[in-house]
Amino acid sequence: MVRISKSPEERKEELVEAAQALFLEKGYLRTKVSDIVRHIKVSQGIFYYYFPSKDAVVEEIVNRYMQQHLSQARSVLAMSELGPLEKLEEMARRQLEINLKENNNIHAIKGVDIHERILNRLIVDYVPLMVQAFDGGADETVKLKFEVFVSAGNVLMDPGLFSWPPVERNRKIDGLITMMEESLGQVPGAFSFYRGLMGYV
After folding, report:
1. pTM strictly above 0.70
2. Contact at 8 Å (CB) between 50 and 6?
């Protein structure tokens, strides 16, 4: 039998993909490191060469997911032809695109605080890019308002926490958007593009 040699990047990717598939299938708590390595037919030593723990794989999954968002947001910030609201709208559009592709694979992982980790990264890493798009990022009050908006939106719309009927969900989304528009001195409807990202139906 010929042994296939893989680059470190390929092997690490393979471990992450195997872990994510098993986390989705069995849940984080019921997945052992031995399950992950058995899935791709490598030794546990290989796993521990790349990751000090199973939790470190979760961090890698979150990092990869967030890097997609951050990379897209930074590319939008570089679009000098767009105004502030246009930049925010394009950032929201790209976020939604990533979410439609990745969210079920990320948020469906049970038994670990994946939502909290993602929300932390959104507040710490993503919100500053939103603020930079909106006003250059100089006003701490504006930053706080975006932090509250992103936090409230992610918590209230988290299906793991709340199962709102569609009408109630839409009402809450519209309320959050209106509060944000008013607090930032925007005309009604200025932030309506956030509806899709927040799951308006």
Report:
1. yes
2. no
